[in-house]
């Protein structure tokens, strides 16, 4: 009995202890709950939002590019793609079969699609085909009832309506690489394209625009439940070029099968009216992804279609440089309008003999006649009297040695040699013979077609230091263009020489003559060797250019301006291995200038 | 031997009005909260969960009343028999489970799935209550007197571990330990057992299934495997924490409705509830359970018979285990063991089992003044 009482008491005591223990445990759960929901509540709220909110970047349309007349040069086309959503079709295989009957798929494409369907959740769209044509699109719409689960999605593709005509200055767009990544969220969007060369790259910041944001609520499997917030981006800025697409097309077509470059400037502003480098390439190929073979063909082609020959290649200016030498000599007072030198076809300096292109010689000539006939001997003599540094000084004044801060990749600045230049780079003393050949634009001097056109513009506009531009200058900017210290009188003398080249009886470019309502052109030819002619060959008779293989033929150059009386346009043309400046380059330049005059830009 | 002459038999009406209606109210309130949560879990729909749960509750409720109104002496009389019948069922599902029915460990009763392991939790309590009811303090304190109850507890626990259902087995063992503690088994025996367990733990670890090892390791460090087994607990904490003080509102829990929260209608229902109803809702649920628990202790205090006290203590402890383990688990305080929150989680088995327990508890309380004679296990 007593023991039973003890047994009962013990039960009561022990149960009381456990009861307290269990109550405390339950209350501790409330403490924990308070800790999670109040103390750490904000942290978990953020985590919960991160879970449910998926932010998508909205891609702004890339800025359009127009020519000076509002013609579209670069725009964005709707890119329609067909997608399949597995969960929206009762039978994936059947839908795919029906699709294939309308739009054939290669075996490789189909394998990729099936893998995509297998590896993704059933509500994730898988791409069947992109860049659908209008025909394909209407087919799909017509047969939509047979194609459950197939949806059409719309994106934007960069398109260049003029294709090969604009490739070398517009450049092209391509996928972002690792080095180009920064904190702009657009760059991380799969398939986003940025400018890879030319103006597309140079103006990337303006053209790209700003991304928008789309906040979506998604579930644990990534399915979109609803749109929470949409913040639209900002479209890329539209750019207006100084290029005239009509002139551009004529200029490019004028080259025919030849390779080379040409650039047309407005002589008063430096605005670039045409910018040609041939052969060209189709930048539209880069938008959809160029095939390995096409890319290789572009790279292997000996005519270098990927090289911008207007700014990225430099050439010996040849006789076109005589304009610079003539102006330098007149300015330095070494010669005047009437100074004559006799040409016998060759000139000796030390134990070296320098030849004129005309072996029989030109007889006595003044500067105008020397330009007209492109007499080498006259300019040898002038160069010797002038000295290399005076020539270099004038060359720099007229724009040689500069890239004009145009900003393209791989721009050449060319070479304007003088005594210091040779000491610095070749570590040897300047030779007088080098001055002689510099007088006819041979030797170390190297220039780009853009520099040639700029030089000519600066001469014929009366000595104003215009700089090549792709965008229009404001009136204020135009009024700020610096006048170079060159006298108008001397400019007129040189211009007269250039006029004679084209218009004078026996001028080297007489064949390129035109007269549009009194507007005529002036200019200067140039033909430069790309191979060395040995003494032996010179004695046994120089091999005719047309008998040489293409790569060894002479480069043909021409610089021209029009109208002569009131110059507006300047053009520089180089035809690589075109053999003859007067025969090949001058007609092209003539065609371009004539068109410019006719268009009346 | 006591004569039962002190007692007069209570009429059915007296019994009915003797029911603790406050206790029953708490049970109903919790169930209603559970029904709302299940309605929300289904995205604002009675199907598939809330409707079924309601039907089960109504059926279970009548079972509870029936068990409460049964003559208390029946329990005492059939305590041992019930235990052995359940033990046989347990062995049977174990054997058939291996032979023909895949991994099935239940008997299908259409509306409910009868799990013998669940029944064992109740019959174990009845068995131990009757055993200690008949023991003297001397027997309780002797080693010899503990052999039978220890074997009777460990054998079914071992069977349940084999199923494998570690959670249920551990609950069974914990309840047994609490009963042993309450009846007065000396503390040194617990210390000895604890020491032994520490020594055996590395060996037991060896026998755990990989998924069980993972659960323990993940409990210790949920970030160990954030997409695998740690995912549940991380998402549970995010859901809970983001609920804040007042919650995201009924039907507005993002974690649960967007399926970031796994098992939102079963084991993790407390999380869903706390996401939508916040600290306020979670605290109310814990407090209602606390009231049920305290009611239990109050019943145990006022019941005169040793048997009755012990039955109530045992079943009450059982219920406490469910609630504490489940909530502690979703709060990241215990490993994920797959124990539902009774009355709120969707599921017939647990509903049936806890409602039956409440019925028995109520019966013990109604008959609190009935004097049950001491019958020794050793006398039989």
What is this entry, summarized?
Chain A has 601 residues and is an alpha+beta fold.
Instruction: Give start-end ranges of low-pLDDT stretches of chain B.
Output: 1-6
Mean pLDDT of chain B: 87
Largest interface: A-B, 41 and 52 residues
Write down the secondary-structure element order of chain B.
HHHHEEHHHHHHHHHHH
Main structural class of chain B: mainly alpha
Label the overall shape of chain B: globular
Q: If strands are numbered along the chain, what order do they take across the biggest sheet of chain B?
A: 1-2
Low-confidence stretches of chain A: none
Which features characterize this protein?
heterodimer, A: 601 residues, alpha+beta, five-stranded mixed β-sheet, five-stranded antiparallel β-sheet, 22 helices, 19 strands, elongated, B: 380 residues, mainly alpha, two-stranded antiparallel sheet, 2 strands, 70% helix, disordered N terminus
What does this structure look like?
The complex is a heterodimer of chains A (601) and B (380). By secondary structure, chain A is of the alpha+beta class. Helices cover 39% and strands 18% of the residues of chain A. The model of chain A has no long low-confidence stretch (mean pLDDT 87). Chain B has 15 helices and two strands. Chain B has helices at 12-18, 21-41, 50-69, 72-99, 116-133, 137-141, 144-162, 166-183, 187-207, 210-220, 229-243, 254-257, 269-302, 306-330, 348-366; strands at 107-109, 112-114. In chain B, strands 1-2 form a two-stranded antiparallel sheet. In chain B, helix 2 (21-41) runs antiparallel to helix 13, helix 5 (116-133) packs antiparallel against helix 7 and helix 14 packs antiparallel against helix 15. In chain B, 50% of the residues are buried. Classes of the chains: A alpha+beta (601), B mainly alpha (380). The interface between A and B is large, with 41 and 52 residues.
């Amino acid at each position: 009995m007593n023991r039973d009482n003890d047994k009962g008491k013990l039960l009561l005591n022990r149960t009381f202890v456990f009861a307290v223990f269990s109550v405390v445990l339950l209350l501790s759960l409330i403490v924990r709950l308070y800790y999670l929901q109040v103390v750490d509540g904000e942290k978990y709220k953020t985590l919960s939002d991160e879970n449910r909110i998926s932010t998508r970047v909205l891609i702004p349309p890339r800025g359009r590019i127009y020519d000076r007349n509002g013609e579209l040069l670069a725009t964005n086309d709707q890119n329609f793609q067909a997608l399949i959503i597995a969960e929206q079709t009762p039978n994936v295989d059947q839908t795919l079969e029906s699709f294939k009957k309308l739009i054939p798929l290669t075996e490789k494409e189909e394998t990729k699609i099936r893998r995509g369907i297998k590896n993704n959740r059933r509500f994730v769209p898988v791409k069947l085909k992109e860049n659908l044509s209008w025909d394909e699109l209407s087919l799909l719409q017509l047969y939509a009832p047979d194609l459950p689960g197939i949806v059409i999605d719309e994106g934007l593709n960069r398109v260049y309506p003029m294709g090969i005509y604009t490739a070398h200055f517009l450049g092209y767009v391509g996928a972002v690489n690792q080095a180009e990544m920064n904190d702009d969220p657009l760059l991380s969007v799969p398939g986003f394209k940025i400018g890879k060369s030319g103006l597309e790259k140079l103006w990337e910041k303006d053209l790209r625009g700003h991304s928008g944001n789309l906040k979506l609520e998604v579930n644990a499997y990534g399915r979109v439940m609803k749109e929470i917030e949409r913040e639209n981006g900002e479209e890329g800025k539209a750019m207006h070029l100084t290029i005239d697409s009509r002139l551009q097309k004529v200029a490019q077509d004028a080259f025919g099968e030849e390779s080379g470059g040409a650039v047309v400037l407005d002589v008063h502003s430096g605005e670039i009216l045409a910018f040609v480098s041939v052969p060209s390439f189709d930048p539209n190929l880069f938008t959809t992804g160029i095939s390995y073979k096409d890319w290789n063909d572009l790279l292997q082609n000996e005519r270098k279609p990927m090289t911008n020959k207007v700014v990225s290649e430099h050439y010996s200016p040849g006789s076109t440089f005589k304009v610079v030498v003539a102006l330098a000599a007149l300015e330095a007072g070494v010669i005047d309008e009437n100074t004559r030198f006799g040409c016998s076809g060759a000139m000796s300096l030390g134990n070296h003999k320098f030849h004129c292109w005309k072996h029989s010689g030109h007889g006595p000539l003044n500067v105008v006649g020397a330009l007209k006939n492109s007499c080498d001997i006259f300019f040898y003599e002038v160069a010797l009297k002038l000295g290399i540094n005076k020539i270099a000084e004038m060359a720099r004044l007229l724009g040689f040695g500069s890239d004009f801060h145009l900003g393209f990749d791989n721009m050449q600045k060319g070479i304007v040699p003088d005594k210091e230049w040779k000491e610095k780079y070749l570590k040897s003393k300047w030779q007088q013979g080098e001055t002689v050949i510099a007088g006819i634009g041979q030797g170390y001097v190297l220039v780009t077609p853009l520099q040639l056109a700029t030089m000519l513009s600066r001469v014929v506009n009366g000595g104003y230091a215009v700089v090549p531009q792709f965008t229009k200058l404001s009136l204020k900017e135009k009024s700020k263009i610096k006048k170079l210290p060159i006298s108008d009188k001397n400019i007129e003398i040189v211009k007269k020489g250039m006029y004679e080249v084209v218009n004078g009886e026996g001028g080297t470019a007489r064949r390129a003559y035109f007269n549009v309502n009194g507007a005529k052109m002036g200019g200067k030819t140039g033909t430069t060797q790309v191979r060395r002619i040995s003494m032996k060959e010179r004695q046994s008779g120089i091999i005719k250019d047309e008998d040489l293989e293409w790569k060894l033929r002479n480069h043909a150059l021409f610089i021209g301006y029009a109208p002569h009386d009131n110059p507006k346009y300047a053009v520089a043309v180089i035809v690589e291995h075109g053999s003859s400046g007067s025969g090949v380059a001058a007609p092209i330049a003539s065609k371009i200038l004539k068109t410019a005059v006719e268009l009346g830009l | 031997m006591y004569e039962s002459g002190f007692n007069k038999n209570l009429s059915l009406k007296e019994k009915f009005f003797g029911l603790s209606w406050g206790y029953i109210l708490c049970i109903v309130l919790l169930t209603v909260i559970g029904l709302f949560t299940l309605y929300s879990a289904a995205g604002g729909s009675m199907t598939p969960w809330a409707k079924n749960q309601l039907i089960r509750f109504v059926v279970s409720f009548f079972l509870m009343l029936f068990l409460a109104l049964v003559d208390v002496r029946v329990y005492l009389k059939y305590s041992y028999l019930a235990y052995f019948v359940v033990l046989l069922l347990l062995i049977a599902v174990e054997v058939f489970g291996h032979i023909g029915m895949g991994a099935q460990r239940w008997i299908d009763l259409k509306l409910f799935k009868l799990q013998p392991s669940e029944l064992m939790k109740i019959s174990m309590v009845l068995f131990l209550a009757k055993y200690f009811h008949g023991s003297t303090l001397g027997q309780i304190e002797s080693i010899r007197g503990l052999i039978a109850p220890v074997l009777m507890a460990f054998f079914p626990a071992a069977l349940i571990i084999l199923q494998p259902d570690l959670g249920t087995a551990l609950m069974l063992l914990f309840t047994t330990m609490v009963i042993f503690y309450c009846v007065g088994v000396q503390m040194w025996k617990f210390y000895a057992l604890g020491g032994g367990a520490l020594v055996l733990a590395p060996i037991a670890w060896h026998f755990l299934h990989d998924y069980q090892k993972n659960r323990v390791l993940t409990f210790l460090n949920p970030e160990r495997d954030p997409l695998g087994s740690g995912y549940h607990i991380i998402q549970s904490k995010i859901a809970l924490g983001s609920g804040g003080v007042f919650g995201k509102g009924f039907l507005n829990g993002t974690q649960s409705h967007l399926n970031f929260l796994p098992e939102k209608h079963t084991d993790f229902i407390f999380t869903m509830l706390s996401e939508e109803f916040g600290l306020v809702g979670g605290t109310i649920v814990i407090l209602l359970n606390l009231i049920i628990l305290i009611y239990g202790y109050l019943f145990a205090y006022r019941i005169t018979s040793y048997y009755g006290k012990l039955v109530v203590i045992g079943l009450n402890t059982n219920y406490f285990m469910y609630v504490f383990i489940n909530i502690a688990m979703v709060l990241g305080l215990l490993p994920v063991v797959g124990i539902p929150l009774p009355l709120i989680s969707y599921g017939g088995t647990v509903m049936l089992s806890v409602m039956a327990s409440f019925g028995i508890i109520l019966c013990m309380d109604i008959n609190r003044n009935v004097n049950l004679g001491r019958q020794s296990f050793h006398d039989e």
